[in-house]
Amino acid sequence: MPAANSPLPPQEWQPPAPGLVLPPPDHVLSPRTGWTRAHWEAVADRLLDALVPYASPGFAQYRLPGRASWSGAHSDGLEGFARTFLLASFRIAGAHAGATGPLPPAVTERIDSLTQRYARGLTTGTDPDSPDAWPPITERSQPMVEAASIAIGLHETRPWLWDRLPDRTRQQVADWLAGFVGKHPVDNNWRLFQVVTEQFLASVGGTYRQSEIDAGLDRIEDWYDGDGWYRDGDGRNFDYYVGWAMHFYPLLWARIAGAGGGSADGGRVAAYRARLSRFLDDYVHFFGADGAPVHQGRSLTYRFAAVAPVWMGALAGASPLPPGLTRRLASGALRHFAERGAPDGAGLLRPGWYGPYAPVTQSYSGPASPYWASKGFLGLLLPPGDPVWTAAELPLPIEESDTRRVITAPGWLLHGTRADGIVRLLNHGTDHYAPHTDWSRDEPHYTKLTYTSRSAPLTGVHVRDRHLDAHVALLAPDGTASRRTVVRPLAVRDDRASSWYEARLPGDERTYHVTTTSLPYGACEVRVSEVDAPDGVAEGVTVRDGGHAVAGSRAPEVLGGADWALSRRDDGLTTVVVGLHGWRSAGVERAEDAHAFGPHAAVPYVTAPVGAGAARVWVTLVVLTGEALDAAGVARLRTGFRVAVTKDAVHVTVDGEPDRVVPHRISSSYGEA
């Protein structure tokens, strides 16, 4: 392990997928990643070039291989155009950014070809008589989403594309976009699609309603929970949409409204900038040293779109991050995915995380959905001479020290470890359940106790109902596990986070409340769990606490004892659970084709009865570490943790740390193990 204040060695990176030709790394300008603006341009060009074989004859649709969305192939083709046009627009505008004379001939050829390609698509896509014609914008339809990307792309490339389109094409495009006027989008981040689309129409003399723009901007105020954090609609919906939507679109609206002598509402813009700055102060802690973002929330197939708000901070002059840190974070994330199959050998972004993996998508996702990752290239709008491209890279916070961050609005406690570069998110407030929702839904990307930058929840259809990993479950006699549905936050502070949920078991009308408090200690988490059963406990009910699900291309090695178990990957990544109080047995469950990180997964767990005379409080040591642990390592680790359960509280003593006391939430929780 490095000395406390010594610089960490550069991250060990992997080669990218075949077909992605990159310039040599520059370890002087970018000592952490080696990547520069030229690398970003090379990845963008590879993504855009790879689409051509899938273009429709008029280049208005890109019909990529894969499962169609519920909107149908025609809408999916529009999605392919719109989302890649966003990338193309950043590439086109970025090539001209800061230019004082003609572009180099090779750059001119590429950019002109790209501009003409998308100009042709705009012409045929908005021609009602064309076989390539886009579906119209109707109530709550997918074209609403895609209209926003087209509007942004047209604004950012206006001097080179919109202003040079024939009058007829401009009118066709404006007419198609105006299909948004008077319509009602889904009441979440979709409200902002209407805002940017109609603001663009206003900027070009098209049909729009100022009242709809204002209403959309007013609506997101209802979802702002302070400290830079928005919910995505009603309910406790916190995920990456806060960055790549709720912060992204308002400031792009401001760019459109303020262009060409126009003006955006100064009060709104100042608020958006201040909120984004505060958000980024937290957000920089969500990325591991290897560039991976914490694996939490829906639409994870958008991958490096996660860096969009980081670039937006620089673009809008609203970032607390030094320029070299902004680029290090963004380049680290793009490089992380580029070296793990995104894009793949054909230059495509497939639905998945690294390789193809459908469970990280939604039923509305089509083959081109992953290209919302284009948002991650927003930084290309900053000219090559901007400090974000010229400043030397700076290390991430996790590369300098262990980190811990309280994020109050979503009920999260982040803790990261410098030694292995892993970020862990303790979730005691987010569940993605809207008011009056169907509690039978399963939300594994929202309701787990823990998410990390090196692990993911089990999501295969054949295992997700087991509710095994990162979850304290009650088990019915037939093995059916309770779901952690609506999460009831109790507290989140620097040394702990806690919440409870109502557990339901089939055929059992009793009420069970499961309360868990998570105490972070470096790579470790101590979970103190209680079960309140005021109506008594059904015979045969047990409790189970699951560790992290780790996965890879080969089956993880598993080990265990009477009250502990571990799963270890070939590279040493290890997850461990140790029963510190109340647990009676331990085991490991394997799963195939159920994990975003690889086909072979394994989860350690501990179990105990929940009956008359049994303990109602259990304490578990849960570990995820980059250090390869074996039985001897687990034994050494557990000696540093001591637990005393009294009538009033659980006392946790860890070597070198202040004692922590977790009061019993319920009077019936105390019981001898």
Automatic annotation (TrEMBL):
This is DUF2264 domain-containing protein. Residues 36-395 form the DUF2264 domain. InterPro entries: DUF2264_N, UCP014753. It comes from the Bacteria. Residues 1-25 are annotated as: Disordered. Residues 7-25 have a biased composition (Pro residues). It comes from Streptantibioticus silvisoli. It holds the Pfam family DUF2264.
